[in-house]
Design goal:
Keywords: Cytoplasm, Methyltransferase, RNA-binding, rRNA processing, S-adenosyl-L-methionine, Transferase. This protein is α/β, with parallel strands linked by helices. The protein is built from 10 helices and 20 strands. The chain has a 7-stranded mixed sheet, sandwiched between helices. A 6-stranded mixed sheet has the order 2-6-5-4-1-3. Strand 7 and strand 8 form a beta hairpin. Helix 9 crosses helix 10. The protein is globular and about 70 Å long. The termini are far apart.
Length: 400
């Protein structure tokens, strides 16, 4: 056979016909010669054109569909970018929230591409060789459509190694911008575009921050793995009587303090080495050590750690970590308190995460009730045809 493209094995076209984006190598009976990232037509075993996918020999996911049916793949890319932008414009009032995810990979029918908007600056992440090759068209489209001040690339994802790619960071359009001030639900944050986690801010927890703020009224609050203080600021806005903000990074804690001042909250008193920290405490500490050492006499504790499982082989170790931090908190929290606990590890699904928290509750010998689950940020849509896009999960627990 010398046909250009991918031909699937008999009976292996159902997922693609159901608009699932991934083609695994085991489903392929024939593929023509190609360069990594190249777009190829995809056919079923009877010769029916199913769409187009960009491909990579290095990965178990051989192809990722960027168009279905007989539509031109680049035109479909532009159409999906248009659709993603239109949806965000319908969701957000820029005067209240001007930072959000503009494109969420398969959730917006563009596998491998993340674009986050921070006021007038866009940050793009490319996870795949296919998106790397399409980057010039994507940047050209964004400049024409949105006229950003700058477009910054932060493609520092571990998945790029499997794709055979190096990390790629830096300015790709416009003027150099290191920090940008944004607003989220009326709260102000300074986002460091260069020295930051993810693309600069954890936009996916927006709805959970709102919920935490509602729960925080008249409560003492501990925000662990706080990064630049997102949950802490919402807690203060919601009427918390005390908020302690803890992270292992001194730079993140410094940024959290700056965000407090930016919003007109009272500056904190000098931080003592132990004990209560006044109304607002900013503590640089390893969270595991902090939870072991402190009394944790808080009404509301938030555990929102970074991904403990970056790959499938990390799952067992990650579950130990999730169990430890939840057990340490549950052992010490007062009766009637609330724990918000989250996991952003893709390889630890919701069922497994709840099982781990159950084990933590058993070991802590506490009665625990689930009073809420994760509130999805609408700018991080999950494609109903591609449920693998779901990675973030949270439990809101009432402790007796």
């Amino acid at each position: 056979m010398n046909k250009t493209g991918i031909v699937l094995k008999p009976g292996r076209d159902k997922a693609i016909k159901n608009k699932h984006h991934w083609i695994f190598s085991g489903a392929v009976s024939y593929i023509s010669e190609f360069s990594n990232g190249e777009i190829l037509p995809v056919y079923n075993s009877t010769g029916e054109l199913l769409g187009h996918a960009y491909c990579n020999k290095n990965t178990s996911i051989l192809g990722r569909m960027i168009s279905f049916g007989n539509t031109d793949p680049v035109k479909e890319l532009e159409k999906n970018l248009e659709s993603a932008i239109a949806m965000r414009k319908s969701l957000f009032n820029e005067k209240i929230t001007n930072c959000y995810r503009l494109v969420n990979s398969e959730g917006d029918n563009i596998p491998g591409l993340i674009i986050d908007k921070y006021a007038g600056v866009l940050v793009i992440q490319s996870a795949t060789a296919g998106i790397d090759l399409l980057k010039p068209q994507i940047v050209e489209f964004l400049v024409k459509k949105l006229k950003p001040v700058a477009i910054y690339e932060k493609s520092d994802l571990s998945s790029r190694r499997e794709e055979g790619l190096t990390m790629s960071e830096g300015l790709v359009y416009g003027k150099e911008v290191k920090n940008v001030e944004v607003i989220e639900n009326g709260l102000k944050f300074v986002v460091d575009l260069v020295n930051s986690q993810k693309t600069g801010f954890f936009l996916d927890q927006r709805e959970m921050r709102v919920w935490a703020g509602e729960l925080a009224k008249n409560k003492s609050v501990l925000n662990c793995f706080a990064y630049t203080g997102g949950f802490s600021l919402y807690a203060v806005q919601g009427g918390a009587k005390q908020v302690d903000t803890v992270d292992i990074s001194s730079e993140a804690i410094q940024r959290a303090e700056e965000n407090f001042k930016l919003n007109g909250f009272l500056p904190p008193p000098p931080t003592p080495s132990s004990g209560m920290r006044g109304q607002f405490g900013f503590i640089t500490a390893d969270i595991f050590e902090f939870l072991r050492a402190e009394k944790l006499n808080y009404d509301l504790i938030i555990l929102d750690p970074p991904a403990f499982a970056k790959k499938k082989t990390d799952v067992i170790k990650a579950c130990r970590g999730y169990k430890d931090i939840n057990r340490l908190a549950l052992q010490k929290m007062p009766a009637g308190s609330i724990l918000i606990t989250s996991s952003c590890s893709y390889h630890v699904d919701e069922k497994l995460f709840q099982t781990v928290v159950f084990q933590a509750a058993v070991e802590a010998n506490r009665k625990v009730r689930i009073i809420g689950r994760h509130h999805l940020a609408p700018d991080h849509p999950i494609n109903i045809f591609h449920p693998e896009g779901e990675y973030l999960k949270s439990l809101v627990l009432y402790i007796e």
